[in-house]
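G., before I forget:
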Amino acid sequence: MRISRNPRRAVAAGAVLAVLLPLSACGDGDDGGGSTDASGKVEGEITFQTWNLKANFKSYFEGVVDGFEKKYPGTKVRWIDQPGEGYADKISADAAAGTLPDVVNVSPDLVAPLAKAGLALDLDKSASKYEKEYLPGAWKSHQIPGMDGTYAFPWYLNTGPLFYNKRLFKDAGLDENKPPTTYDALFDDALELADKSDGKVATLANVPTIEDFGRYGVPLMNKEGTGFTFNDAKGVELLTKYKKLYDAKALDGQALTATPESTGKKFLTEAVAMNPGSALDLEKFKKDAPRLYKNIGITPQISSTGKDNMYVMGVMVNTKTKQTPAAVAFAHYVTDAQRQMEFAKKVAIFPSTEGSLDDPYFTKQDGKDETRVRVAAAKSIKTAVNYTPVLFSEQMKVELRNSVAKALQGKQSPKEALDNAVKNCDRLLQQS
Amino acid sequence: MKSTTASQAAPTDISTTGTARKEPRPAGRGPRRGIRRQLPTSPWLFAAPGLAIVGIFILYPFLSTLNNAFTDKRTLIEGDYVGFANFQELWHDEMFWIGLRNSTLYVLGVVPALVVLPLLLAMLVQKHIPGITFFRSAFYTPVVASIVVVGLIWVWMLDERGLVNALLEAVGVGKAGFLSDQWLLLLSAMTVTVWKGLGYYMIIYLAALANVPRELHEAAAVDGAGAVRRFFSVTVPAVRSTMVLVAALSSVAAFKVFSEVYLMAGPTGGPAGEDTTLVMLVQRVGTGLTGRVGYASAISVVVFVVTVALMLLVLRADRKEDA
């Protein structure tokens, strides 16, 4: 090998190498990937990533990891947890860099782009034998329109009732024991509450989201999954009603810029009369807002379809894993009936495994509010639907939200606003 | 002739070919020759770590962004070259123009305040009186406070049920939609930026004021100039170059504003996205699993061009003043 005897050149070459060599590691990280065959021996080291669960459930997950390693000697699971904030960004950075963990906690909308990029293992091919263990709806929740296959094990489900403030209802002359159960009743009560409180108390604090359109009975996407349809007559009807609420101050004045956190705070401080929540929130009300807790009313979600909205969590296997059998076995182990039941008893979530919801824990009342919420939610979850289309990305949510805001402010008619939202979401869908 | 050529070429020979090493060392010139031999290499060696860092963390991302701006790259998909298609799309993108408008308004609203107010503040705390250190520290505190904490505190204060609205209601003015009205929201964010930046620029002005000769003030005072006249005739000319520096720094920072608006207007950028700034738009369209990296890069290129133009504009104005 000829080495330059010119020191300037040598140093310059060294500097260039120093710059370029690390960059050469910044490629797509595609190192070949692993096999999609999960039938081999379960062994080797895998990484498992959860979504903001370490703070409250460290011992539970350590137990799960220990249990798996004991069941399959020769395996080693490295558990990592990421904060809730910016989770999608973290996954996208890992996916782009080729450092995505072997087993990843995801939601359906996160799975869709990963599956399209060939990073989520198709369980219908690699682990179809486990399908019968899960509720059919939950298994389907990680299927992607336009693609064949199922791309994550269903994990825990969540749903919840509507909470309302009995005192605010009573002060407005409404019957605090008869909360609205239909959309018409909700809009009527909201207008009356705003009128009686001179616009000081709003009933709702959030603009309608894609789930609200779904729950109202608006068709969200065409059957092929190639275009959005929430600008139909029913969608326009819902937005027109919300516009009426906004004008009457029955929808909080800051709803156009609200986040779920700020909405929750509004309800906690009794600035709004109703808010969706889960059994988890009852504990929070008891601790942070005792006055609200004394007046808390609980009523089922309002839905025109007869089906509540539910949120779905999943566990996917990275196609690039070098330990496919171990990764698939672990993803199944975390989400099997026994582990899901154990997890459900630690936190107010619902298992997605067949038969688990028949456990007395989800069917027997004991007089406590928490139990009442849990039993009612468990009953509704059997028929509940995840109304958020898996192809509805964050950018699309912003498009819808901005269009809704324009309609509520009167800058565009509800029809015009929804047409624009659909047009923009379709464009994003084609670009994805 | 031959010997002349050889002597002219000597320095190069010493450092490149090594031929000179074979020549007998002239008496008494050894150490100097040694230094001359090391000179060309050692600066590069010293600079190498810095160059590597600049290359990896500044040059490469910059060139990569420039390259991506001409592609339809997405987060998980490499994409193809699309020429100027992203820039053509920008031209027709309503949100881009909203972002450009808001970023420009931010510069126009924030920069004059950040050029003038910190100077006045610096003059106030320049005096050596008992307890002045406390005030200097107090005015500097927002600079070191986390922007997230600052943002949250202001959001609480400006909320519909916050302190400011409670005060306005108490004096009979009525509530204002600081966090829900498009223009008030932008104004609120500008206020936070100015409030947080005051202390930083105050320190820069304090250093500049310390260099203004006291004799000038004394001479002006003897000539009968009052405080206001002395300010415009002595202080301002003396710190003019610092004012230009502050204008340049604050205009670039204001054009690239993100945190204040994001924290106060929410991730959607205010009602219907009307308070979105260009950098917020970059973040919104370019991140996440379905992020349009190519398109976001094109917006970044526009931000880069405008900030360079802003700098040149301010420096050119300064040069004109000098002329």
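Chain B touches chain A through 46 residues (CB under 8 Å). The two ends of chain B are 51 Å apart (CA to CA).

More on Monday.
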